[in-house]
Design goal:
The chain folds into five domains: 179 residues, Up-down Bundle (Acyl-CoA Binding Protein), CATH 1.20.80.30; 90 residues, ATP-grasp fold, B domain (D-amino Acid Aminotransferase, Chain A, domain 1, 2-Layer Sandwich); 88 residues, Phosphohistidine domain (Glucose Oxidase, domain 1), CATH 3.50.30.10; 197 residues, Phosphoenolpyruvate-binding domains (TIM Barrel), CATH 3.20.20; 28 residues, no CATH class. The protein is 46% helix and 16% strand. Strand 1 and strand 2 form a beta hairpin. The protein is elongated. The two termini are 34 Å apart.
Amino acid sequence: MSKSVFSFGNGIAEGTREWKDRLGGKGANLHEMTNLGIPVPPGFTISCDVCDSYLAGGGITAALRTEVNAALVKLEADSGRRFGDPLNPLLVSVRSGARVSMPGMMETILNLGLNDTTVEALAAQSNNPRFAYDSYRRFLQMYGDVVMGVDIHQFEALLTSKRMVAGVKTDAEVPAEALKTLVGEYKALVRHTVGKELPMDPHEQLWGAIEAVWKSWTLKKAVDYRRVHFIPEAPGTAVNVMAMVFGNLGTDSGTGVAFTRDPSTGERRFYGEFLVNAQGEDVVAGIRTPLPISEMQQALPDAYTALLAVQDKLEQHFRDMQDLEFTVERGTLYMLQTRTGKRTVAAAVRIAHEMVAEGLITKDDAVRRVHPAQLDQLLHPVLDPTAHATSICAGLPASVLTERGGMTSHAAVVARGMGKCAIVGCKDISVDIAHRRFTVGEMVVSEGDWITLDGGTGKVYPGHLPTVPSEVMRVIGGSLAADNAPVFKSYDELLGWADDARRLAVRANADTPKDARVARQFGAEGIGLCRTEHMFFEGDRITPMREMIVAHDEAGRRRALAKLLPMQRADFEGIFEAMAGFPVTIRLLDPPLHEFLPHGGEESKLLARTLGMNRAELTHLVESLRETNPMLGHRGCRLGITYPEITEMQARAIFEAAVKVKRRGIDVRPEIMIPLVSTVEEFVNQRQVVDEQAEKVLGAMGEDIPYLVGTMIELPRAALTADLIAAKAEFFSFGTNDLTQTTLGLSRDDAGRFLPLYVEKGIFPE
């Protein structure tokens, strides 16, 4: 039978960092830090697969109880304390730890092992009754909430009452006698709410906490987090049981969270927060607003020096920015966690770039560190710094706005990792949850009111502030010099490394010359899809397009197309010029014609007047073009086959534009795509029209321009006969939207109503 419980302590651990699938991220790194000689309280990890078995109905086996009991005996030996001993009690924390970090999504219980007897031993050993009863009330609150299901706000209300009676502002100032009374009130609250006593037997407490951690894997917030971040449901969470060290013993103790670099900007500076005389959950849960880590140098100088050495060692070892949790007990530093820190995309790019320069990682490593989808955030608009606005309050930058908490709280960490703006610990606001509003002095901001959050500075503004292009977009647009844009420099060099490593050419979608120029500035090596129909919606072009559609005969259509020809030619000229020798794939007209016509109202009246038609006649024509299923109707190559003059005009515009650009000394590489082909015969028909126009235009102008003619595989029949089409075509593209819809019989416009349920039930993969 395989082992399920793995111990660590006193510099020796059974696991390593490579065991994340088995021990979870937190557990694997606790074992790794122990093996590195970093001060970590002793403990043990219950492997992830036990969670899966438990949630599947396997319960707690006798074998697991035996392993946990053996690990407890070792933990007692390592710590020099006994679990449940009335004179020298071992107290433990019970924490979750999934394979992939899920900050704040699952449960933690601290100070487990306290009861009415062991609390007195803790008071005697520490010579600090206030500390002992503060630890006890924290345990009762966590256990009552997490294990027994009592609303945490009820505990908070009782604690708030004690602060008010004592006339103090913080939990740390509540006197010992008040805390002792509070312990009794907490126990009474649990008894009254759930109808039974909170257990006093430490072993019963332990198993209750372990089960609660397993069950927290199924909490809605945890399930939602996994879905959003594409984290698999298995393996589940490990459970880490570790000897308690106390940051709430007095002014020589504390707790904190730190990052080896700034997770917002990526700057190489020690960044974080700490609290004196507090426990870890006070920081990460946002219960209290902590102090900057720099102030720890004055408050706890020896521990701060030790922490600087540890953070440097861990970053060098893991070769990535680390997110650290630590506690200082009477001046001695203990590390409770290290993990890869979540960061903004700007920080991710800068950290990857600078770690290459520092020799920590390779260029290929740097490229892998930044997810491609993240880079999109660097293109988003930012608040206009010249806007005249007065902030109503300010907090810590981490569109989440909280009254309490710090920049390392779970809210800030999760928001940062998701690329969302978060401002936490905004002390000037007072949140009224019942009335769904907050106040700042005399100002009341209610649900539905506009506010603007600047996640970079931590300032909050009333109303809707204007935005300007981001630094990257300003450089791309030419309004900012690259030398004055540090974010752009890192971004540009990172993409350069990606170019060095890649084996595929990357093209862009562009429908206008402006789009094509931007695509080139972003490094596109061609246009993969130019949708010509979008050109017809520009300015006054829609009118001759509509003239063509309503024409009664070919002659009328050709008159209208003659007006469109120079417009299309000018667009193609601009695109060919912008791409300067890179290939341009141009898709001929694809949508059904009715999409270009108005559907009533003043626009219909104006069109009828422009075309010299009465409105009834126009309405009848529009209705005659309407289709029951336009996606599979008169569109794509079917339009070109029905009205070959449309294909002729577009092909002529392409080749005339190509010649004009070539004569300016610019290489031109047109690729013409026939849309919505289902048979080789359709393709051959339209290719013949294109080739005839090429011969006619190029022959008349005395030029030789190589070109390709291909198609988009977007129908099941085209996919099945692709071998026949390939014999006549020179390239394929794949239209996955229509191909997916027609293969599965799904409408992308309507399937959203039931696809989430299909994913939830496992019918379709996510």
